[in-house]
Amino acid sequence: MQQTSSDRHEYPAHWEADVVLRDGGTARVRPITVDDADRLVSFYEQVSDESKYYRFFAPYPRLSAKDVHRFTHHDFVDRVGLAATVGGEFIATVRYDRISADGRSASAPADEAEVAFLVQDAHQGRGVASALLEHIAAVARERGIRRFAAEVLPANNKMIKVFTDAGYTQKRSFEDGVVRLEFDLEPTDRSLAVQRAREQRAEARSVRRLLVPGSVAVVGVGRTPGGVGRSVLDNIRDAGFTGDLYAVNKAFPEGQKELDGVPAHRSVRDIEGPVDLAVVAVPVEHVAQVVTECGEHGVQGLVVVTAGYAESGPEGRERQRELVRHARTYGMRIIGPNAFGVINTAADVRLNASLAPEMPRPGRIGLFAQSGAIGIALLSRLHRRGGGVTGVTGVSTFVSSGNRADVSGNDVLQYWYDDPDTDVALMYLESIGNPRKFTRLARRTAAAKPLVVVQGAGSAPQGHAVRATRLPHATVSALLRQAGVIRVETITELVDTGLLLARQPLPGGARVAILGNSESLGLLTYDACLSEGLRPTPPVDLTTAATAADFHRALSGALADDSCDAVVVTAIPAVGEGPAEDAALAEALRSAAETVPGKPVLVVHVELGGLAAALSAATSTAPRAVSRREDSPRSEDRPPSAAQASEGVGLIPAYPAAERAVRALAEAVKYAQWRRESVDPGRVPEYEDIDEKGAAGLIGGLLARGQGLTLGVDETCELLGRYGVDVHRALPAPTPEAAAEAARTLGYPVALKATAPHLRHRADLGGVRLDLADEDQLRRAYAELGELFGRPEELRPVVQRMAPRGVDTVVRAVIDPAAGAVLSFGLAGAASQLLGDTAHRLIPVTDREAGSLIRSIRTAPLLFGWRGSTPVDTPALEELLLRVSRLVDDHPEVVAVTLEPVVVAAHGLSVLGASVRLAPPPVRDDLGPRTLPVY
């Protein structure tokens, strides 16, 4: 859309967005233009007289031509109007007008605006006004407006609540019968918390509409057995779906009322009752018509199993994008296209809207897979009782997203977060489209329930125009682990770890007891524990003559030992043993485990299919109860009650190899440690000497020169200095005389360095001379460098005052397009670079994270007195990291900072080199209003 008048600003297309509303439906938010006059009039006619009165403070039955002109003509700077639309029609509007201090119309630099809303009565209570407030506030901030004012009638409680619940800093007054609200638009911790809580509820509800439908229509059901649509219909029916089921095919003969006992219709429009979910399995050229029919009938969501979209090439990619736009027009969300389907095993749902011929066993594990093939493999592994990891721990919900054009892993995480039927989340991700949001959601989810992730090769699903990360795969994985994600490498490890976490409590530490009837298998388990960083005690060999009673006694004793956090039981078969002996041993282990229910028990078995099955047999497949909404992870660390213990602790996971069992246990140990530490993540400290406003002014002035620039030495030092980071000056020395003059200015002793790109930060190549005590030494060093490396213009020599000796380190911060702001730390030098020995943390960094960042590199012992060396001043280093983190977090225009080298001495540190790059900040980021991705 374009404004037609020549004095209008360009139409701000980046303000357009799809949003999820409180009930899980979607709406489109976009600027109002001159082309919307008819839509505005139609919208206003559908608003009740009461709502009109609340908006205009008087009876206002219709809009005049002057009103319509005013409400559709905007300059997108001082006057802005946004509309929420469904099906192309307005359901709500919001506008702001910039005003001066005396309340009159104004232009910049006035930074206050009056805001007003109008929501169609049929859509009130859906959270439309709250979503519009987020978007109009973001627009206002972009246009330099810092404060909103709103006048509301006292009886208009709904609108007053929209403002007061938003979380902004407010002032409230009452005058002439009108409530006046004023609030700053700067995001606060509370406003962000409110926004994200609303985001979670809305997105969780949108997924719930897909997974817990009251009625399902399968569109594209063949008249004869076979085919995708008929298979999905049969699977839904055979699973015992508790809602209403319909078969739809436009090729059904007139008058056909049912198909294999399922009501049959030629179109979704012909179904008399509501349809919550439609599974679309028609040829790709007919999908658009089906979407229209579903939207007009009020269908809430779609699972599109039809292929022929982005995976088929450029035409399919555009077809896929149009599919999403089309569905969102009607407020529907999509799983797919090219999806395998969805499953919900809850007794009151029993939905198998997928191509899986069998319904998985009910259980407590949630599964998400972008790949249908991987989804099948995961379901199969969890379903099998023999071979590999065995057991009957089942699935709560399963989503295979196919091309992931709309509903993504982030949406499913929002649903699982407070789903009472899911205790463990397993995800296979071929890519992470929005790592910044995923990390935020994962951190919150992992504080309540385990999240285990396998990440594939890293290619985005077909048709996705996602921002590519510049970070190495290993770095992204490390950042995910810091958010509490249990990151594993294979789907075998995914299932191994998931089964342990679903069946057993979290370990209290890394101390592992090993017992069994095979000395060799015990030693293998012991070595595997050492390899995984666990602390095993010497294995207890019960000998091959051990009976079930011997195992019971030994396991009970190990669990009762306060120096033990977990137990691995190893078992090999004895000659002549059969199912009865397997059942007896399983019962002995289960009964022993019940004596101390707060410690995990694992079994490593060799060719004992009967034992594995017996261990998994239980009256309930649920794990011990977990608090549905844990505000503090500590509740998970407490031992379960007797009722909780009897409910699920009898499910002891069995593994066919020691390495697999121990690797799963090691992941549980690390996750439990993260849970304990996440209770107190630390704080972002305040420093009184930081000049945030001065830095902002400096950055604004520098950016006025251009779109992006690397700062000069003086500008870099000034900006860093405003955040308390002092950089040692390095003076250019193009001639020996200039070098001598620089040394006299700085004072001896000095260092002479070559700063040419091929020599910079490479002391190992000989381009640095240190501790030059006088001018003679300086001139000799200058001559030596010239003889070795060439003329001064090739060397670019500089002179710098000597810093106290210490350990050379590197501090970097960068804004990654996908992951966001990342702080990195490592030791300087080629060895660290070659080994990739660099640690990373997401910004803003807390004081605890700064300490762990320093200690997480492999070469950290060099900082703490390795082999008798003097320990360096790590508190000063931590403070430097925190100051750099604050700089980048406070000013998103700072897109890169490098401090190299930072010499950390026994007392204090010296920053000897620094560079800073600036760029205009992104228009929208993760702090902006809620939006659905656009692919």
The helix-and-strand class reads alpha/beta
Helix fraction, binned, reads 25-40%
> How large a portion of the residues is in β-strands, by DSSP E?
15-25%
Strand order of the largest sheet: 1-2-3-4-5-6-8-7
**Shape estimate:** flat
Low-pLDDT residue intervals, each spanning 5 or more residues:
1-7, 385-391, 618-650
Between the first and last Cα atoms, what is the distance in angstroms?
20 Å
- Radius of gyration in whole Å, from Cα? 32 Å
Provide a count of the helices.
Answer: 29
Q: Based on DSSP secondary structure assignment, what is the total number of beta strands?
A: 39
Query: Main beta sheet, described?
Result: 8 strands, mixed
Please tell me the overall pLDDT. 87
Q: Could you walk me through the main structural features you see in this protein, from its secondary elements to its overall organization?
A:
This protein is α/β, with parallel strands linked by helices and 935 residues long. The protein has 29 helices and 39 strands. The longest helix has 23 residues, at 189-211. It is flat, with a radius of gyration of 32 Å. The chain starts with 16 loop residues before the first strand and ends in a 17-residue tail after the last strand.
